Structure formats: C-alpha cells, structure tokens
C-alpha cells in the first residue's frame, strides 16, 4: 500500500527513503520509524504508517513502540556506565554486589558472564505465577536461588528475558535505583533520549500497539511442546510474558525486552557510541569502556537457541551474513524480536535505529525489513 512518508532525509540517502516506503508497499509494514546519524548528526529521520492495527491512529514522530531485545543494549549501557565511573567491577563476582546470588553454587560467577550470556541462568525452573511478571523482587529472588542449568562459563545460552532482571538487579544494587530509573536519570534525560524502560501515563498515550509476536522458529521446528523445557521456560516463565499491549506490562520494568522508543532514540545513542562515546559535548561512555564492551566474549552455537551468535559484553557483534552485520566488522548493537534494530558502526561513525509495530517472526537475526534498510544505507555510503 502507498503511505505518506514523513520526516527528513538527506539527499545522499534518497534510496533509503525509497526502501522505507517499499516496506509499506511490499513487506506488510504497519507503522515504523527509521533514523540514521553520521558523526552524531541526523541524516535520516523518517516515520510513516499507523500506530494501531485498525489504522486509525497515524504514526507520529513522537510515537514510541516496544523494542523487545533491542532494549538489551540499553541495559548493558547502564552497567558499562557504572563500570566506567568506577562504581562496578565487571570482573568481580555478582555476589559482591548481590549477596543472595551466591546460592546454589553461583558465588564465583562474575558480572561479565551475565552480560555475555554465560551464567547458565537463561531460564527459571521454578514455575512463577502470572503476577510475578510485575513483581521485580519475586523474579530476582527466584534467580538468586536458582541453580544454573550447567556449569557457568562453559558455554553461552541467550538469556532472552532473564538478562534484564540479572543485569538490572546488579545496577539496582550498585546505584540504589531500578534499571529504568537509572536509565532515565543518567542517560535519557541528560542526553535527550526518548527511550523508556517502564512507562508513565504520558508515554503510554503515545505508544503504538504491537501485533502478535510469532514464536521463535525453534519452537515450531519439529519440537514437541514441553512446558518444562529450558527453551519454553526461557520465553514463557513467568506468565507467557503477558500481553505486551497491556498498560500493566508497559508500566512494569522488564528490561530484557520492554524498552519503548522511536528509531531516533536508538540512532542517537548508538551514534554517540560510534563517535567515541560523546553526545553534544557530554560523555556517555569513554572510548576505553566502549572497547571493553565490544570485545568478543563468545562466538559460536548458542546452547539454548542452537543458532550461531557472537557477543561482547551485552552487545551483539557483527557476523558475516546480511542478517547479522552491523554495517562493518567493527559494528555492534542489538536486534529485537519482531524486527527492531539499533547499532553503532564506528568505522563509518554511524548510528542506526529502526522500530516497527508489525512484528515479524521472533528471531535473533534481523528481519527482512531491517536487512533491506541497512543494505540501502550502506549502498548510499559506498556510492558517495
């Protein structure tokens, strides 16, 4: 379908705008925003479509939508900022900051293993009631008491949802603030970033509804449904992760998945990281902290999902396929189930953000819409 594309686009990136429009014509886009920065300055800032499935509410520039796992990059940023400021040692045991975590043989797990998915805590065995989704203490208490699924550090397995609670509780213990509050006070407000983990009334009023998220392919690929399998538990305990359009879910902090933003927020943050960590003269992270955050920690088959993944400390790193390349070999960021994507490319000093509300299949790879947009950006870069 034809839609009106709103926003601004540098003439150097006219093909990017055309590709964004093509998503609505041929890739079933409902509503979305797209943003690209170069040297910290916006060169693409586009939005179009609708914020609801009924197509009654036009997508505006300040429309925000759920990021799913693209939120994880922002969670990692909070931890790295605390480490950069000298408040957190990423090599120290988690239990130094969160003593209860030492239970069940976890006393030696370092904070870094939470960030790179090597903790063995990718799922919670203990069945949690639906209301636990909104009870931070209940979930982190279950994680503190939990026995790892295997010897920590021996392999990596994607902490699809537990990542946010694990890293978020360390942030809370160190800073005295919840992950969402820390992000708001130390990153969003000082740096003018319209990204939120836990929404208030004003944010809920401008939040796009997301369509139903399809199960990961691993759920459907000849598997018998076993409610006690680690794969099912990783995504569905507690509460099947609830209704993602429910105001209760939007208000809660589930920082592994429920950040909300527009594309310009992701591009602004990653644009700063692509330029050495500065944003409008303020320091987001030092260059040394960025180097540490993006140093390869794991590379190979994921013990839960089966697919090959490559991670630094909290950030996905580029691999050599179109569905997993963050612009260049130096790129890093995070994709979100359903399609959202944010990344930094230090080689080109580029930040990228894409946020849709029509969700594609859940996957750790980029969706076809994001791949087409990234390829259009780099096609234009190479031609100038």
Task: Give structural attributes.
384 residues; alpha+beta; seven-stranded antiparallel sheet; three-stranded antiparallel sheet; 14 strands; 32% helix
Short characterization:
This protein is of the alpha+beta class. It is built from 13 helices and 14 strands.
Written description of the protein model:
- With 384 residues, this protein is α+β, with helices and mostly antiparallel strands.
- Helix content is 32%, strand content 15%.
- The chain has 13 helices and 14 strands.
- The protein has helices spanning 14-26, 71-84, 111-115, 136-145, 162-175, 179-191, 201-204, 217-220, 230-236, 247-251, 263-274, 287-293, 368-383, and strands at residues 6-9, 31-38, 41-49, 65-66, 195-197, 259-261, 278-279, 282-283, 298-301, 308-311, 316-317, 332-335, 341-345, 350-356.
- It has a seven-stranded antiparallel sheet, with helices on both faces. It has a three-stranded antiparallel sheet with strand order 4-6-5. The protein has a two-stranded antiparallel sheet with strand order 7-8.
- The mean pLDDT is 94.
């Amino acid at each position: 379908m034809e839609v009106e594309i709103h926003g601004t686009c540098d003439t150097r990136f006219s093909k990017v705008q055309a590709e964004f429009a093509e998503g609505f014509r041929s890739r079933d886009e409902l509503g979305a925003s797209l943003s690209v920065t170069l040297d910290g300055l916006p060169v693409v800032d586009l939005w179009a479509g609708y914020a609801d499935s009924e197509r009654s509410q036009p997508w505006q520039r300040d429309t925000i939508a759920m990021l799913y796992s693209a939120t994880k990059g922002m969670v990692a940023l909070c931890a790295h900022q605390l480490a950069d400021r000298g408040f957190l040692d990423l090599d120290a045991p988690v239990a130094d900051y969160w003593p209860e975590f030492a239970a069940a043989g976890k006393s030696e797990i370092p904070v870094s293993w939470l960030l790179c998915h090597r903790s063995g805590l990718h799922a919670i065995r203990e069945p949690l009631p639906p209301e636990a989704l909104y009870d931070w203490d209940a979930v982190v208490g279950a994680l503190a008491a939990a026995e790892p699924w295997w010897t920590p550090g021996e392999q990596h397995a994607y902490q699809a949802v537990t990542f946010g609670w694990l890293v978020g509780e360390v942030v809370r213990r160190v800073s005295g603030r919840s992950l969402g509050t820390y992000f708001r006070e130390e990153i969003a407000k000082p740096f003018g970033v319209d990204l939120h983990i836990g929404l208030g009334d004003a944010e809920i009023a401008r939040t796009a509804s997301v369509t139903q998220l399809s199960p990961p392919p691993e759920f459907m690929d000849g598997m018998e449904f076993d409610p006690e399998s680690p794969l099912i538990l990783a995504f569905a305990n507690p509460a099947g992760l609830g209704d993602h359009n429910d105001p209760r879910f939007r208000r809660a902090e589930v920082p592994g998945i429920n950040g909300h933003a527009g594309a310009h927020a992701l591009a602004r943050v990653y644009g700063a990281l692509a330029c050495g960590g500065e944003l409008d003269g303020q320091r987001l992270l030092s260059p040394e902290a960025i180097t540490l955050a993006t140093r390869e920690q794991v590379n190979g088959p994921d013990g839960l999902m089966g697919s090959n993944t490559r991670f630094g400390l909290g950030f996905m790193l580029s691999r050599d396929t179109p569905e997993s390349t963050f612009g260049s070999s130096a790129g890093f960021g995070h994709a979100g189930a359903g399609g959202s994507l944010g990344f930094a490319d230090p080689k080109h000093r580029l930040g990228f953000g894409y946020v849709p509300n029509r969700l594609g299949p859940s996957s750790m790879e980029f969706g076809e819409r994001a791949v087409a947009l990234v390829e259009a950006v780099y096609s234009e870069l190479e031609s100038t």
